[in-house]
Amino acid sequence: MIKKILLFLAFVVLALQLFFMQHNKQVKTHKKPVVCVSTFAISDITNHIAKDKIEVVNILPYGVSPHSFEPTPKLMIKIEKSALVIYNGSGLEPWTKGFHFPKNSLDLSKYVKLQIQTKHHHKEVHHDEHHHSLYNPHYWLYIDNMVIATNVITDALIKILPKEKQFFLQNKKAYITMLQNLKKEYASHLFSCKKDTLITHHDAFFYLAKKYHFKTKTLSGISPQALPSAKKITELMQLINQEHIHTIFFESFASDKVIKSIAKDTHIDVEVLHPLGNITANQAKQHLTYKDIMEENLQKISKALECQ
């Protein structure tokens, strides 16, 4: 009797071992491809197209500027092992310089319409022209570029997971429809405005300004880390008084000390305008999307420009 019980228990143990071995094999077999993305705008596109079919890894931690971020060695290894790496390019991410990307990587700046920006020269260029030091890298704020990026990212996702092609295409269609409606909102709200100048922390809103025919004056230029000169601060304060500007904008990832000082001395309001290169941890908890933040920005821009 005891021998039968022992044999039975041995059989149960063996059966359980075989079950867990098979289960672990299935989990490993069905592991999702990992796609690493470098900015919030790219993350928003990828998550809306892939949904739960792919593991999307944000290279940039919440609350950190893409202009100054440096990934850890551990993160670098994860990037190298991923099925796909999608990054902004055009000089936005300093860490990409000299980085040996895996074979399957995607520099979106090679596909979108970029703008050369110098003090006296604004010109649209395409991916076959290479003057990277002159590009303004904040091209995702131009909604037409987001449509281009959505098409490019969808094609890349189909290549790494072809069985989900129809699923990805369906989601792409819905996302592009959202972008087209957002573009109509911007055109409608910024069609007729009394003022034509925004003062912002850095020149992230150059594409928006060019598209909707207003000007931006900035504290620090293309990079928010650049320190403004006393001359620049004086010029901005004079502009505020001359143009009767009533709002000055800063960003969540840059110091607001100088902006608030200017606002205090000129008796104007201070507001946050989001460049969407990244989001804060609080915005992530609220599950805010590209659309949500772009609409929030639109309301603030429209108010500052006194649009009808």
TrEMBL record:
It holds the Pfam family ZnuA. The keyword Lipoprotein does not apply. The keyword Transport applies. InterPro entries: AdhesinB (IPR006129), Bact_metal-bind_prot9 (IPR050492), Lipoprotein_PsaA-like (IPR006128), ZnuA-like (IPR006127). Transmembrane segments: none annotated. Keywords: Signal, Transport. GO terms for molecular function: metal ion binding. Belongs to the bacterial solute-binding protein 9 family. This is Zinc ABC transporter, periplasmic-binding protein ZnuA. It comes from hydrothermal vent metagenome. The lineage of its organism: unclassified sequences, metagenomes, ecological metagenomes.
